[in-house]
Amino acid sequence: MELHNFFRSGTSHRLRIALNLKGLGYDYVAVDLRKNEHQGAAFKALNPQGLVPALVEGDLVLTQSGAIIEWLEERHPTPALLPADVNDRAHVRALAALVGCDIHPVNNKRILDTLRTSFGADDAAINTWCATWISAGFDAYETLLAADTRRAGFSFGDAPTLADAYLIPQIESARRFKVDLGRWPLIMEVDAQCGALEAFQRAVPMAQPDAA
Hints:
Blueprint: E1 2-5, H1 10-21, E2 27-30, H2 41-44, E3 54-57, E4 60-63, H3 65-75, H4 86-103, H5 109-119, H6 123-147, H7 162-176, H8 185-195, H9 198-201
Helix pairs in contact: 1-3, 1-7, 4-6, 4-7, 7-8
């Protein structure tokens, strides 16, 4: 498998976590968003949307991190990133969607570039924008964690799931945008639990070959 991705991309980060948790090897292909390589013809031949990541296996090209992770779950079901119970699966998917649908999209590169170029936002305004949506989402996530009496360190249960693969890159992004994370102790507990695992350690942005 080839993983076309960028070290600091949250969607790439979550997919690296999922691949590592599954114990799946891949060839790392860097797509430098700083140089707009994702908008070039070579990458758009893989993903016409011009967004990372893309996963290539033989003639198969998969895009959209959520769809790729679900494909991995079906193709390589062990270890599972979703619980066995249908209600629990819905809960974990909802936690992931809280990040993937409601926090991340309004804070990604193309949105922030538009805020800078079309609306004159400076770094302080960008940080405020990102903190607004991260904080709203994390408030809800923290509440959901507090309500789950069966939770044992991770976002759900006692092992990492799809939800953690989404949450941890968003925490990384929150730090980059100078969000004070101290107000969410349960989220920080999850961060510590995941951070102790090699699968998460190997996925962090600064551990990637294009981070220099």
